[in-house]
Amino acid sequence: MAKQATYSFKAFQAEYPNDDACLFKLMEVQHGGTDIVCPECQKRSKFHLMSKRKAFACQHCGHHIHPCANTIFHKSSTKLTHWFFAMYLMTTTRHGVPAKEIQRQTGVTYKTAWRMCHQLRELMAEADDASPLAGHIEMDETVIGGRPRNRLPQGQNKKGHTGPNKTVLFGMVERGGRVRTRVVPNVQMGTLHPHIVENVAKGSKVSTDELKSYGFLPYAGYEHARVAHAKKEFARGDVHVNSIEGFWSRLKVSIKGTHVSVSRQHLWKYAAEFSYRYNMRKTPEQMFERLISSV
User: Fold this and answer.
1) Looking at residue 64, what DSSP letter applies?
2) 180 by DSSP, 3-state: which?
3) What are the tens digits of pLDDT across the range 176-230?
4) Long-range residue pairs from 180-186, CB within 8 A, at least 24 positions apart, any chain
5) What are phi and psi of 114, to 5 degrees?
6) Does 168 map to a domain?
7) Residue 170: beta bridge partners?
8) What is the value of pTM for the model shown?
9) The domain spanning residue 230 has which CATH number?
10) Does any domain span residue 186?
11) Does the structure show a pLDDT above 90 at 166?
């Protein structure tokens, strides 16, 4: 089996050695390059990089194009090389990167690094494949934060099971494919139903645990099978939720080891970051390029 390609730091440095190189990349992503039809004079023009602005000017009429407009870089005083480096770290580091590390590596303030990381996580959520999950889907719910002894046993309804430091995450994963997560207030049927219908194609085979909230699945057009964790049944043929539980395990270990803890308000961003990397695990060399192309 051929070894998967990776986007090395040496290749990254060679491609984006300075802010100008980053700006040319944004011009390519936003407008198709520098040899384009000017939107002002309607002539085919070679746009030239301006010396004192993050902009390109038309060679005929002098019309300015600002590649950073309508992106997360708009009106940001932070160097583009710092932004691109933060993107590189977040797409190539398996367990994520804390804002403190971005601060140390780039020299920006912690407040700036924290803001950059959150904006990049939001970008990852937008860049991820939004098409419906299909095939054999596993569904499960987990709790982030709080003490393990305060968590309810498997199969019980988690209504109200979200104390000050507890947040419920609901997850759906294609067997061998993509994962999708949602922060939910509880795991009642009325809460999970719209997320499932929106994100899972009808006719898919769905494996879950014995939570009663999944009882509507056969009536909603899904082939449904359960495993009874309360009875120590963790797999029955191809019916199990081991894939999504494995994702939960990696997510929790990474959050604890890298970020220590995360707030309920921002948890969806961290989950989106880990989902993005998980979904592109088979093409790691494309993670950075896809994120840049999503600005």
Assistant:
1) E
2) strand
3) 999 999 999 999 999 999 999 999 999 999 999 999 999 999 999 999 999 999 8
4) 180/133, 180/275, 181/268, 181/271, 181/272, 181/275, 182/268, 183/264, 183/267, 183/268, 183/271, 184/141, 186/157, 186/158, 186/159, 186/160, 186/161, 186/162
5) -65, -45
6) yes
7) 141, 182
8) 0.89
9) 3.30.420.10
10) yes
11) no
* Local confidence band at 79 (pLDDT 50, 70, 90 cut-offs): very high
Domain count, the chain: 2
Rounded CA separation 232/122 (Å)? 38
pLDDT digit string (tens) for 120-163?
Answer: 999 999 999 999 999 999 999 999 976 554 444 444 444 444 45
Domain match, 93 and 185 both: no
DSSP notation for 124-148: HHHHS--SPB-SEEEEEEEEESS-G
Question: Which residue range is the domain that position 40 belongs to?
Answer: 9-127
Mean of the per-residue pLDDT values of the chain:
91
